[in-house]
Design goal:
globular, 302 residues, mainly alpha, single chain
């Protein structure tokens, strides 16, 4: 009698690729969920606070888990200061500007603008670290911004109000996230990606709560339409907590470079999701501009 064949273990690289792919889809869905919530007249500050309220317990539990690990070195005063600054900059300010911008522009354009952050990292490295700008990188930057110009021109034709204001807010969000990436490299190497991510997210949650308490009456969080709470939970679980953990696990298996390549599916995913769930227009011109942006960002990433 033949022995039963044991199931073969999943290839770690394949598993890591699946994690990163799911992470990219989750992050891409955030813009769709935000736009759906705005249908119910919730403002950006309240919506962001709801997102963080539902996300915070998961990051607090993760932080406690790592704090109990005696093998890990404790955070120094400099580590805490870095966590505070980068948490405020990368996950509070960047998220706030993004949510504000989504009030005025399409989800597809928002995701493409945010996806430019690797090119901003290159520009910041040239300006502040005297890093030479190579011809390939210059070509990639031009390719990306020509692509954004094409998509921007396409969206002007859809008669969106305050298109320039919304685009500017999302550009500022991408710049804030690029600054966060520039400053986080050393801390991630020292503390570990999961541990560092949980700490900076807690900082962002506290900042969002504080802003809400200072600018909105507390009872306003309980007076939203029921679908807003459902969308807030989905935003927290599917587009914040799960993608963050999946990305960290994916990078552990396949490395940051491969993860960056797989994550490039994000903007295209957003465009298709926006087409199906928000009835946002999708044309050949928009897809061509999106392809230029993706090509430019991938050149920079490689």
């Amino acid at each position: 009698m033949n022995a039963l064949a044991l199931p073969q273990p999943i290839n770690p690289k394949l598993l890591g690729s699946i994690f990163v792919l799911l992470s990219a889809i989750g992050f891409s869905a955030k813009a769709i969920l935000v736009k759906l919530a705005y249908v119910y007249s919730v403002d950006a500050i309240t919506l962001l606070a709801l997102r963080m309220v539902f996300s915070a317990p998961f990051f607090i539990i993760t932080a406690i888990w790592y704090s109990l690990d005696k093998k890990l070195s404790p955070l120094t005063g400099r580590d805490w200061l870095t966590v505070l600054i980068l948490g405020f900059l990368g996950y509070y300010l960047a998220s706030l500007l993004d949510f504000l911008g989504l009030q005025f522009i399409s989800a597809g354009l928002e995701r493409l603008i945010l996806f430019l952050y690797p090119t901003f990292v290159v520009v910041l490295s040239v300006l502040f670290f005297s890093r030479p700008l190579r011809k390939k990188e210059l070509f990639a930057l031009l390719l990306s911004y020509v692509g954004i110009a094409i998509v921007f021109q396409h969206d002007i034709g859809t008669v969106q109000q305050n298109l320039i204001l919304g685009s500017s807010l999302v550009f500022a969000s991408a710049w804030a996230y690029a600054l966060y990436l520039i400053g986080s490299g050393r801390s991630i190497a020292r503390l570990g990606a999961m541990r560092f991510m949980s700490y900076v997210m807690i900082v962002a949650c506290v900042a969002c709560f504080a802003q809400f308490l200072f600018t909105r009456p507390l009872n306003s969080v309980f007076s939203q339409a029921m679908p807003v709470y459902g969308l807030g939970i989905a935003m927290a679980l599917l587009s914040t907590v799960a993608p963050a953990f999946l990305l960290a696990l994916g990078i552990r298996h396949i490395g940051a470079s491969r993860a960056s390549l797989i994550s490039s599916i994000g903007p295209i995913t957003t465009i298709f999701l926006a087409y199906f769930f928000l009835n946002e227009p999708m044309s050949a011109v928009q897809l061509f501009g999106s392809a230029l942006v993706l090509a430019g960002v991938l050149l920079v990433s490689l």
